[in-house]
Amino acid sequence: MRPVRSLTFSTLFPNSYQPTHGVFVENRLRHLISSGEVESVVVAPVPYFPSGRTFFGRWATFSRVPRHEINRDLSVYHPRYLAIPKVGTSLAPAFLALGSVRTLRHIQRSGFDFDLIDAHYVYPDGIAAIWLGLLLSKPVVVTARGTDVNLIPQLKIPRKLIQHGLQRASAIIAVSEALKQAIVALNFPANDIFVLRNGVDLAKFFPQAREPIRRDLGLDCPTLISVGHLIERKGHDLIIRALVDLPGYVLLVVGDGPEYRRLRTLATSIGVGARVRFLGVKSHEEMTRYYCAADALVLASSREGWPNVLLEAMACGTPVIASNVWGNPEIVRAPESGLLMNERTSKGVARAVLSLFGNLPARTATRRYAEQYSWHQTSRGQIDIFTKVLGITTPES
């Protein structure tokens, strides 16, 4: 029997100018393909922008993304769609579908007549994919990943489009139980929603000899690491403020984003600038070293679907401190994994850090905890959903 042919559809996918953008979608797809039971072409639309001049910031980056590229043997198409900041939210699925339909037809004519569309992020991506599926007579599987079901449905028109569109999905996947409940709150039966949690690549993220890495990085004191896009909801500012109550601690901040200047100014203004290192964006290969160098990772987000950084750190033997929101409690479930902060404030972060450092788990125990989250179970679940949607009977694996 030939592999299932899937068309992966998402605006969240890496490209040659944004190599870490939506990397969690790529990770799940690559592990799925490695099973040998699924093959895929990727359609990752980017907003249309006419100029590549650098003073336009991230919009200029979009204009430089190629229309088609090969990403480590994956064929990835980047059609353009109209994106109108702030006022275009309600029209986003329509613009996305209109901008992508010619590309999907081209893929079919080129010989890859996909069996289904595998869409990631409910709004606008999933809704656009459902409309494309109806147009092309293809079933659509939609994965919810976070703000697409716990924030965007607060808007009246997107909420109606989500409720109407998801009724036509062939299957709905959530990456955490908390997100599943958010979809249930949109009046969908719980039995119709599958939970497939993200895994962690245990071969890519693994414990390394810490002391040589720490010497190389000039670390000789308790070290925290905060990883993620530098935006308000990630709570990097709370961790920086917590350093006031954590004398002697150093914080490594990995990531980039619009909050960068404000966070640097904040660190300087409260007298902890010398203890905060802004490292910019790092590749997965580099991240393993930084996770291993740190004593604990701190994630102070106001909302998270299933944050991969928690499992990545644990796989390197580094325990975590996380805000008690959405998917976080489903990951941090035992002392060897770390702990959840009692309150999402700078004082709450500081108290959680002192509590964890008062009884740090063995790094070998933290690694063992992470080993239960391999990708195999997630890939198997996704294959089962695909074959069920397509009415394919397969031998039990």
In short, what is this structure?
The protein has 397 residues and is of the alpha/beta class. Helix content is 39%, strand content 17%.
Defining traits:
397 residues; Rossmann fold; eight-stranded mixed β-sheet; 16 strands
Strand order of the largest sheet: 4-5-2-1-7-8-9-10
What would you give as the CATH superfamily of the largest domain? Glycogen Phosphorylase B
Kindly state the number of beta strands.
16
What integer value in Å does the Rg equal? 21 Å
Distance between the termini: 14 Å
Task: List the domain count as a whole number.
Answer: 2
| CATH class category label of the largest domain | Alpha Beta
**Mean pLDDT metric:** 93
CATH topology of the largest domain: Rossmann fold
Query: What ranges have pLDDT less than 50 throughout 5 or more consecutive residues?
Result: none
The number of helical elements comes to 16
CATH architecture of the largest domain: 3-Layer(aba) Sandwich
Q: Report the biggest beta sheet as strand number plus sense, adding barrel if it closes.
A: 8 strands, mixed
Helix/strand/pairing category: alpha/beta
Strand content: 15-25%
